[in-house]
Amino acid sequence: MPQHNLTRAEAQTRAALLAVESYDITLVLDGKGEDFRSVTTVRFTAEDGAETFIDAITAEVSSITLNGAALDPAEHVSAGRIAFPGLAADNVLTVDARFAYMNTGEGLHRFVDPVDDEVYLYTQFEVPDARRVFPVFEQPDLKASFSFTVLAPDHWTVVSNSPTPLAAEAAEVAADLGIDDAGLAMWRFAPTPPISGYITAIIAGPYRGTFSSLRSSDGEDVALGVYCRASLFEHLDAEAILDITRAGFAFYEEAFGTPYPFEKYDQLFVPEFNAGAMENAGAVTFLENYVFRSRPTQAMVERRAVTILHELAHMWFGDLVTMRWWNDLWLNESFAEFMSTLATAEATEFTDAWTTFATLEKAWAYRQDQLPSTHPIVAPIEDLADVEVNFDGITYAKGASVLKQLVAWVGREEFFTGVRRYFERHAWSNTELADLMTELTAASGRDLESWTALWLEESGVTLLRPRLERTADGAVAALALEQSRVELPGQPVPSLRPQRVGVGIYALGADGIFTRTAFHEIDVDGPTSEVPLGRPGRAGSAGAVGALGDRSAAPEVVVVNDADLAYAKVRFDEDSLRTAMAHLSGFTDSLTQLMVLSTVWDMVRDGELPACAYIDMLCEHLPSVTHSTGLLVQMRQLATALDVYLPPTERRSARTRVAEALQRMMHAAPAGSDQQLQFFQGFVAHATAPEQLDALAALLDSDAEPAPGLDLDTDLRWSVVIALAAAGRLDRAGIDRWLAADDTATGRRSAETALAAPAAPAAKTAAFRRLVEDRSLPNATAAAIVRGFRLGLETDTGDPVPAEEPFDAFSVEYFARLAGWWETRTLEIAQLLTLELYPPASTATVEATTRWLDSHPAAPKGLLRLVRENLDTARRTLRCQAAARP
After folding, report:
1. Residue 112 is inside which H or E element, if any?
2. Distance (Å, rounded) from C-alpha 226 to C-alpha 233?
3. What's the start-to-end Cα distance of the chain, in Å?
4. Which residues contact 872 (CB under 8 A, 6 or more apart)?
5. Per the residue annotation, which of 126, 311, 414, 660 is the catalytic one?
6. Nearest of 753, 752, 874 to residue 814 by alpha carbon
7. Global pTM?
8. What is the pLDDT of residue 886?
9. Which residues are registered as beta bridge partners of 323?
10. Nearest Cα residue to 364 out of 388, 399, 335, 408
């Protein structure tokens, strides 16, 4: 199923021609068959005599009626569109059509729960997939009121943007449609306020819910609902979710000076969801992994809280006020990302949320900003093909980082004064960059034109490096920061942006603990900025001048971007790097420690430091990392260092050594702690030596705890099963035994990963065949198979695992099939295959990728972007492997 494009020029032309009043949509959803019926009536005004089209990706169109006249579907329906000529000033369009149920997480997704064989449906429309469910003018600036009528099995729950009505008899509507109403009920939802089509939603099936309410700032009661599948309901900790939600409501209503804009707020955890969540107005859908059937890490619990608050922020930024076109997507996502972190830090138990942001989201932004596809925060979006791959670290994390700086620069009160005026002026309408900047300028009195140009309209990142003089005992005598440009081939050279930077100076005491002896906030502007060492940091800055301890042990450490105020790559001087890495455990402040780790890792990624140095540092100091998300990030980076950045010949011995270290850490960690859980997860992932695999096998065959206070729950057990299968220690019969004990959707996906995991030609070939040939695979199942396929894809010599007949080498098959995926598969599946089946980095992979790009200049823009990113990642990997060699 190909993608169907819409250009910005087409959208602008259409918006100039017409205004949409309302949609009245009737859906017949019994969950059976391959498609469903959708009858839509659209009322809109237009220029008399104009011609235009409405977007619709249909299975079959039965009838089209425009202003009482029937139009022949054969003449007016084309791929993704229904065209109609001769519009009147006032128009009524009715389309009776059938649309396909999807299993890719796009449009109307259908899932069958293996526990009870019940059907669950939900919609996912961002960016352009409302057109997979009903005809719609698929652009954000043609807002309208939406009224849904749904016929569905009478034991189901149906949720939409408006409050859920009582189920009624379906006979009359069914008779009008000419269908049998046996077993069906009817839900008729009230019209919505004017909203964009991509935030409408229908969620239908035997979902179970928990209900509450809250009093909004305007005195109105807002009904709250939290839903999930019936078979997961026992695991739904709804009260914790509602507590976060209530805190978010209070925080946002005060900050924005605007009451919650919709009548109710439902949160639905749905199966096989592609993203973290989606901000459907009043009916937010979430990734089902946030219903914890096994013990989660604290990082995951915090991530759920941030996601809940991110989507709630969208009710204002995105739903009440919406960008006119997708080049201003940042008005949705950057603001939601910034506000959710601010609210998490100030209104929930996760008070160190900005530390989480610095180590996770901001690292994502830096990675994205160094890819050949980097773009300004306000990105040029010419069509849907541009925006569909633009939900990235720039739009989310870099945008939020920059907003944090903007708040500090204009002042928090002034910033939110401008935001309140923005909502007052533009409620229920569409905006562009200038609309917000006008209000912020007026509220702050600052000219934001140059700031906007440098931070929002330019791409790229700069590098801050300390230049210092030391005394004989290693103390810092003079210090300046040098700012340089990080240049990327084919990209504009970034400006040396002015920004606030924190610089911490640390002395190592005889007890091995660092004391921050000075902290300076300076404005960096231009290539060189002096740090005034004679003037300590502002009152209230953490780490006031204190006892130095024994300076003879090591030179002072200079930490650039301490407190994470700036958006820039940073480096250490040589003495600071050596001392910080050797004594990482001596940093007692989690943010400073994680900033040190981020800098070290960035040097590894840039090929300036061998991966083994990072691995050695973590093997010694990882127990000192107590921040859950910070630890999670280090564990992920450790896996990348071991499995990607080390040369293949060194990986087996390094994994064995790391697994031994993690096993020791697990037993030494406090019983029941988050650290203990994460160390065990790491041990399972890296266990390589026979005795390590023996220990895992013994755990499966007993009821013993891996360590006191650590239960081998369902999902931890699956991680052990996958590890043993990957090592060739568990065959299909063994995997099936554990699937029989957990024959759930999650269990089935875990079994798929385990079956694809063995580093054997037969297993890899079977997995590859299913991924590229089986169109019936749901998105989540395909992702599970990919996870297993990628395990052990290279031998210890670096050679790829060979494919069996009828396939050629997997890399050859990849490049031969790549363009076809974007012609025949939906966007989500095409992206999955493009990114996850890309061959491991090698000189041959780089050469094959370069040849493919040279021979496919007219390939879809989204495909070209992802292939260029793959190529950049492969080249970076080879540089890292070269740096790791003696």
Report:
1. strand 107-112
2. 10
3. 49
4. 371, 372
5. 311
6. 874
7. 0.96
8. 63
9. 431
10. 399
